[in-house]
From TrEMBL:
The lineage of its organism: Bacteria, Pseudomonadati, Pseudomonadota, Gammaproteobacteria, Pseudomonadales. The gene is recX. It comes from the Bacteria. GO terms for biological process: regulation of DNA repair. The keyword Cytoplasm applies. InterPro entries: RecX_HTH_1st, RecX_HTH_2nd, Regulatory_RecX, WH-like_DNA-bd_sf. GO terms for cellular component: cytoplasm. It is found in: Cytoplasm. This is Regulatory protein RecX. Residues 15-52 form the RecX first three-helical domain. Coiled coil: none annotated. Belongs to the RecX family. The keyword Zinc-finger does not apply. Residues 59-99 form the RecX second three-helical domain. Modulates RecA activity.
Length: 147
């Protein structure tokens, strides 16, 4: 008997979704995309994902919270996190609420990231200072001022 290459039954779809959720939290849209890539039909995938939401096993709120925590621990700021979450299909209102509720001092994190990357402090030359500011913007600290 040959192994299935597509997810044909609701049980297959649920099992595949549970396997993915066992590794880490996923957003609804992210999990839907992955299931479709594995061969699940769109309608059957939606039904199973809705059941996972009802069962409390899939939650965009929980995904947002875990994602913000993990990425901020790696030195990424709110602007970058906002964009990454948007790309993962999380609603704008949920992203804004999650960032506001995050137990994170963004200015202190920005200062810490800057000090780690630039131990010599703020550059005197405009070109080097621009490089520092671009780095901070890339990391998601758009309002950062290196004074």
């Amino acid at each position: 008997m040959r192994p299935r290459t597509t997810l044909e039954t609701p049980a297959d779809i649920r099992r595949s979704a549970m396997d993915l959720l066992a590794r880490r939290e996923h957003s609804y849209a992210e999990l839907q995309r992955k299931l479709r890539q594995r061969g699940a039909s769109g309608d059957m995938a939606e039904v199973e994902l809705d059941r996972l939401v009802e069962d409390g096993l899939l939650s965009d709120e929980r995904f947002c919270e875990a994602y913000i925590y993990a990425r901020s621990q790696r030195g990424y700021g709110p602007a970058r996190l906002r964009e990454e979450l948007r790309q993962r299909g999380v609603s704008e209102s949920l992203v804004e609420r999650s960032l506001a509720e995050a137990d994170q001092d963004w200015q202190a994190l920005a200062d810490q990231v800057f000090a780690k990357r630039f131990p010599e402090g703020v550059a005197r030359e405009p070109a080097e200072r621009g490089k520092q500011l671009r780095f901070m913007q890339y990391r998601g600290f758009s309002g950062f001022r290196a004074d």
